[in-house]
TrEMBL record:
UniProt-listed Enzyme Commission number(s): 5.1.1.-
NCBIfam families named in the record: asp_race
A Pfam family matched in the record: Asp_Glu_race
Superkingdom of origin: Bacteria
Gene3D superfamilies, per the entry: 3.40.50.1860
Molecular function GO labels: amino-acid racemase activity
Keywords, alphabetical: Isomerase
InterPro entries given in the database record: Asp/Glu/hydantoin_racemase (IPR015942), Asp/Glu_race (IPR001920), Asp/Glu_racemase_AS_2 (IPR033134), Asp_race (IPR004380)
Protein's UniProt name: Amino acid racemase
C-alpha cells in the first residue's frame, strides 16, 4: 500500500470522516487485519476563515512539503474550499494532489450529468478553483445560486455545519434550494464535506454528487493500486 498524506482541520469533523472512511474501505478491500499508512496534518481553520489567499497558499505549501518529506506519496485535502491552493502548491512539490474535481467529474460522467448546481460555502461557490477545473478539464458546466442564497448557504456552512451543528432548518433550506434549481441543472454538487452528513438519506430533486465520499474513494484507489 502507498502512504497518503492528509491535510485536515477545515473542519476537523470532515477530517475525522476522511480518516474513518479511508481506513474502513481499505480494510474492506484488502483484508480486515490491515490498515493504510496515513500522515495527517491538521490546519487551524481560522487560516481559511481569514480568506487571505497569499496566507492560504503559503500555509498549504508549508504543510505539503512537510507531508512530502515525511514520506507521503500523494496528498489529499479533506475539504473542498482549500483546493483553491492546489494550483499554487502543486508545481512546487514532486508528489500529486488527489484533486476533488477529478472525483466529481468521474461520477458526473458515469451518471451522464453535464450541468451541475454547486452548493457549499461562499468561496467554493464563487471562486474559480472548482468551477473552472470542471469546465476546462471535463467540459462540465457549473452553476451557482443567486447572491441571497450564496450568503445563506455560507452562513449555514460556516456558522453551523463546520461546527458540527446539523439542524432541521438547514436540512429544509437545502432541500428547497435544490428543488428551486431542478429545471436548471441535472445534478447538484454537495460541495461542503458536511453537506452529505446533513442530507444523508434525504430524497433530493436533483441527482446528488457528494464530494466527500467520492474523494475518499479516489484516495482508497490510490492507496491500494
Amino acid at each position: 500500500m502507498k502512504t497518503l498524506g492528509i491535510i485536515g482541520g477545515t473542519s476537523y469533523h470532515s477530517t475525522v470522516e476522511y480518516y474513518k472512511e479511508i481506513n474502513r474501505l481499505v480494510s474492506e478491500q484488502i483484508g480486515s487485519d490491515q490498515n493504510p499508512e496515513l500522515i495527517i496534518y491538521s490546519i487551524n481553520i481560522d487560516v481559511m476563515r481569514r480568506q487571505n489567499i497569499d496566507e492560504i497558499n503559503a500555509k498549504y505549501l508549508e504543510v505539503a512539503k512537510k507531508l512530502e518529506q515525511a514520506g507521503a506519496k500523494a496528498i489529499i485535502i479533506a475539504a473542498n474550499t482549500p483546493h483553491m491552493a492546489v494550483n499554487y502548491v502543486q508545481p512546487k512539490i514532486t508528489i500529486p494532489f488527489l484533486h476533488i474535481g477529478d472525483a466529481v467529474a468521474k461520477e458526473a460522467q458515469k451518471l451522464k450529468l453535464k450541468k451541475l448546481l454547486l452548493l457549499g460555502n461562499k468561496p467554493t461557490m464563487t471562486k474559480a478553483f472548482l468551477k473552472e477545473y470542471l469546465r476546462e478539464k471535463y467540459a462540465i458546466e457549473v452553476i451557482i445560486p443567486d447572491q441571497t442564497n450564496i450568503e445563506q448557504s455560507h452562513h449555514y456552512v460556516s456558522k453551523e455545519l463546520t461546527q458540527g451543528v446539523f439542524t432541521q432548518a438547514a436540512k429544509t433550506y437545502y432541500k428547497q434550494l435544490i428543488e428551486n434549481y431542478h429545471k436548471q441543472a441535472d445534478g447538484v454538487i454537495l460541495g461542503c464535506t458536511e453537506l452529505p452528513l446533513l442530507l444523508n438519506n434525504e430524497k433530493l430533486s436533483l441527482q446528488a454528487i457528494a464530494t466527500t465520499n467520492l474523494h475518499i474513494n479516489l484516495a482508497v484507489s490510490f492507496i491500494i493500486t
